[in-house]
Structure formats: structure tokens, C-alpha cells
Specification:
The chain is α/β, with parallel strands linked by helices. The protein has three domains: about 1-35; about 75-275, Rossmann fold (3-Layer(aba) Sandwich), CATH 3.40.50; about 280-450, Ribosomal Protein S5, domain 2. It has helices spanning about 75-80, 100-115, 130-135, 155-165, 190-205, 225-230, 275-280, 330-345, 370-380, 405-415, 445-450, and strands spanning about 5-10, 15, 30-35, 90-95, 120-125, 145-150, 165-170, 210-215, 235-240, 245-255, 260-265, 270-275, 290-300, 300-315, 320-325, 350-355, 390, 395, 400, 420-425, 435-440. Helix 9 packs across helix 11. The longest helix is centred in the middle third of the chain and has 18 residues, at about 190-205. It starts with 6 loop residues before the first strand and ends with a helix. The structure holds thymidine-5'-diphosphate and magnesium ion (MG). Thymidine-5'-diphosphate binds near residues 100, 134, 138, 269 and 270.
């Protein structure tokens, strides 16, 4: 009996048993497409009577040839990869069109090539002359990188097999097509099949493959989500339009910590590494403004200081606005509710704007206290003490809960010239010489002691 066909949403990758106009999971319209079985996977027909061949099993204790990571010497990239490129790994680099993926990977290819790895860059989007033009702009025209402009995956795999490079970059997975799959390039079936072929090729031949994937909002072409589970490492290249900063974030890594970030700046000559991101995300601290609070955060394994900016203004009429950039809007509502019901500080009838300076996106709950401080500071029109960092998680009861890595946060703050910290009461403190700490048991204490409100 033939297995029933499955349907996948090109927007969120959810699998459905039947076709429908709207995806139940993400709510997108016209994004569901029928899947075609993978060409080298188990066929969709039942196995029948024919026997397979026996697979040789090995012990867990068997010593493998050393899996030495290759460093690109672009420190921000190596860190996000978990300390360098693992041989025979498959990596997906996703991001919005125009964010700088091709630039990053051309620089990476050149950097790997400089360390005597054999690097091949295959572009399915640009002609080789365009890639060369970019290389000249990046001053990498002499790097020993092999180039090709091709979209036929069968030809690409044959070439890679012959050339046997150490690392192959495929820009982008959405332009690749397999002649065994009927649908158009960019469709879910093509993208999945192409990614499957490339990742299994990577394992078989010991070649590291880096796939570029465009994030698509419209769902007209399949997004990187449909290949995330096939690859070893998923990196997202993000940045706000109009900002120079770009953040390479590991969201999945079989060979290193997830959540690690690398920070770059887009310049006229390509991406430059930003070794000290904290300094970048802070505005001038000499003039401390009401509504501003500096959060001592942790991104991956690294402390990053950034500034929350809040603005509170009377709402003209009707529904008050809540606008957030760089943080979760649900979390903002929660903190406003806690301020109102636990501290008696209402925000009804007030527009609230919250922004993370520099285009950074914060997901840590430890930022709660910094957000509350920024909100209170804006509402009371009183600035926080100068050169102060804030961190701590707020619970629904209004108490301030301790967060991890207190020492790391404080050390980074001290390094950048901060003099005091507002943190949860039960924080574990070691040697924090030089930094004055103000411990908060709950949100009401912050409102009372720092702003005289509540
Ligand atoms: P690109 O790498 O082509 O983006 P993607 O592959 O993610 O679509 O980068 C495109 C943008 O980067 C483009 O708007 C121009 C800008 N850019 C620079 O600012 N400086 C540079 O040196 C380069 C090569 C590009
Ligand atoms: Mg590109």
C-alpha cells in the first residue's frame, strides 16, 4: 500500500496530512505544498519482500581519526561555529535577502582558503563576474577560492566529488534544483531534496557544506525552516535595516553551544568584526537620560551590555499604544501588569514605547528588571544613577529572582567603566571589587528606593 502523501508549509515547515489554503500552525495563506519523496531516502512504496544488505555496526568506544576543527581566523565566525568548522558538517546560514550572507560567506571562503583549506564557492544567484566584482570590493581577489555559477545539483555534486574540496559554499539552497524532482526550484520539495542530497553528500565525502537560505515572509519560496532539521548547525544572520550591525546567531549546533553570537559591522569593504560589542550597543553614558537603563546581558557564552530605552507619553484617545523593538511584546505587557498590580503604578492611558539601542534583539528573562527600570525612569522622568547596570528576572508576584552568571555580567560592566549595579537580592556574589551593588528583593523596592514612586 502506498504511503499517504504529506504536505508541508513553506513558511513554518509544519507537516499536514491534507492540503488546505491556510496553515493551522503559523496562519499563513497559500503556503502548503505537497511533498515529493526524497530521492535517496526510503521510497514511499512499502519495502516488499526484497531484502536490504546488512550494515556493519561499530562500538561507541571506537577511536575515530581526529576531528580537528578548521579555524577561519575570523574570530566572530569561529566562535559561532563552536570553535571552528567541523569536517564533514552541514551548516545552514539563513537570513533576510540583502542582509549580507553572500558577503559573509565569500569572506569566510577566502579566510578558509588562506589557511590552506580547499574552498569552493558555488553561486546560483550571481554570475561569476559578479562574485569576482564583490571579491574585488572586499579586496579578496587574490584569495585561492574556486568559483562556479551553477544551479544544477547533479552537476554540482559531480564536480565537488571530483574536486574534493574541504569546504563548499552553496549560495543559495533555494536556487538549486534536482532533475529527479518535478517541481520548480525554490519549492518545498526541491529545497528539501537539494538539502538532503547536499547534507548526505557532506557526510559521505567528508566535505563541509555551507548552505545559504533566504528567509521569506511571503512563503512563495521555501524558507530555511524546512532544512533546519537536516543540518548540523543553523546560523541566522540578522540585523535591523538602517543599522550597520549584523549578528550571526547559532540557533542550533550539534558541535557547540547554541545561542552563541558573532557581531559584525557592514562597511564599504565588507563585514568587519566587532570584538567588543558592548561598547557598540551603548550610547553615550556621560549624559544619562530618563527612560534609559543599561542591561548586563549574556549572549551565548559572552556578556553583552546594551541599553533599553523607554518612552512613556499620554495617549491621545482610546487605546494606548504599546510598541516594542528588540524585545518580546508579551513580556512587556507582563511587566506593565506587575508594575500596576504589585506596585500600584498604572500605565493605563499612557503610550509606551520600548527599544533596544543598536538593533540588538534580547530574549533573556534577566532583562526584566532593566526594562522595568527604563519604564519607571521614563514615567517618573527621573534618570537612573549614572554608570549603573541592571539585571534580574521579575516574577508575577513582583519579586525579583536571581539569574545566572552574575559574576560574568558584573565583570563586563566593570571592564566598561560602570560603577554600580542593581540586581536581585539573592544573587550569588563573589569578588566584585570596585562595583557598588544595590540588591532588590522586589519590584516595589526598585520603584521606591530608586525613583521614590509607588
Ligand atoms: P549580500 O551579501 O549580497 O546580501 P545577501 O547575500 O544576504 O542577499 O549583501 C548585500 C548588501 O550589503 C548590499 O545592500 C550592499 C551591502 N554591502 C556593503 O555595504 N559593503 C560591501 O562591501 C558589500 C560587498 C556589500
Ligand atoms: Mg546573496
Amino acid at each position: 500500500m502506498a504511503k499517504a502523501a504529506t504536505f508541508t508549509c513553506t513558511n513554518c515547515g509544519a507537516v499536514h496530512s491534507k492540503w488546505s489554503g491556510r496553515c493551522d500552525d503559523c496562519g499563513a495563506w497559500n503556503t502548503i505544498a505537497e511533498d515529493t519523496p526524497l530521492s535517496t531516502g526510503p521510497s514511499s512504496k512499502s519495502l516488499g519482500a526484497a531484502k536490504g544488505k546488512a550494515i556493519a555496526l561499530t562500538d561507541l568506544a571506537t577511536e575515530d581519526a581526529s576531528q580537528e576543527r578548521a579555524q577561519s581566523k575570523i574570530a566572530e565566525l569561529d566562535r559561532v561555529l563552536g570553535g571552528g568548522l567541523v569536517p564533514a558538517s552541514a551548516i545552514l546560514v539563513g537570513g533576510d535577502p540583502g542582509i549580507g550572507k553572500s558577503t559573509l560567506l565569500l569572506q569566510a571562503a577566502a579566510a578558509f582558503a588562506e589557511t590552506r583549506l580547499k574552498a569552493v564557492y558555488i553561486s546560483g544567484e550571481e554570475a561569476t563576474s559578479q562574485v569576482r566584482m564583490r571579491a574585488r570590493r572586499l579586496d579578496l581577489q587574490d584569495a585561492p577560492v574556486k568559483l562556479a555559477a551553477e544551479t544544477n545539483l547533479r552537476d554540482i555534486l559531480t564536480t565537488l566529488e571530483k574536486e574534493a574540496p574541504d569546504v563548499a559554499i552553496i549560495d543559495s539552497i533555494q536556487t538549486m534544483w534536482l532533475d529527479t524532482v518535478g517541481s520548480a526550484p525554490g519549492s518545498v520539495s526541491q529545497v528539501r531534496a537539494a538539502a538532503h542530497e547536499l547534507t548526505s553528500f557532506a557526510k559521505r565525502r567528508g566535505i563541509s557544506v555551507i548552505l545559504v537560505g533566504h528567509v521569506t515572509k511571503e512563503g512563495q519560496i521555501a524558507g530555511p525552516r524546512v532544512v533546519e532539521h537536516m543540518v548540523d548547525t543553523v546560523l541566522y544572520f540578522e540585523g535591523e535595516r538602517g543599522h550597520q550591525f549584523r549578528i550571526l546567531r547559532a540557533v542550533k549546533n550539534r558541535f557547540g553551544p547554541a545561542d552563541e553570537i558573532g557581531v559584525f559591522e557592514m562597511t564599504g569593504q565588507g563585514l568587519a568584526e566587532v570584538a567588543n560589542p558592548s561598547a557598540l550597543f551603548l550610547s553615550d553614558q556621560e549624559a544619562q537620560q530618563p527612560g534609559s537603563a543599561v542591561f548586563a546581558g549574556i549572549e551565548g557564552t559572552r556578556p553583552v551590555l546594551c541599553e533599553f530605552q523607554a518612552l512613556v507619553a499620554p495617549a491621545p484617545a482610546g487605546q494606548a499604544r504599546r510598541s516594542v523593538v528588540g524585545w518580546d511584546s508579551g513580556r512587556l505587557s507582563m511587566i506593565l501588569a506587575v508594575l500596576e498590580s504589585r506596585c500600584g503604578i498604572p500605565f493605563a492611558g499612557l503610550d509606551v514605547y520600548l527599544n533596544v539601542a543598536g538593533g540588538l534583539r534580547i530574549t533573556e528573562p534577566a532583562a526584566d528588571l532593566a526594562v522595568a527600570a527604563a519604564l519607571l525612569s521614563a514615567r517618573e522622568d527621573a534618570s537612573l544613577p549614572r554608570r549603573t547596570v541592571v539585571f534580574g528576572e521579575i516574577s508575577l508576584s513582583g519579586s525579583v529572582r536571581p539569574v545566572g552568571q552574575t559574576e560574568t555580567r558584573l565583570r563586563e560592566a566593570q571592564k566598561l567603566g560602570f560603577e554600580s549595579a542593581i540586581l536581585p537580592e539573592r544573587s550569588k556574589l563573589g569578588q566584585t571589587a570596585g562595583l557598588q551593588v544595590q540588591k532588590m528583593p522586589d519590584l516595589a523596592a526598585l520603584a521606591g528606593t530608586v525613583f521614590g514612586a509607588g
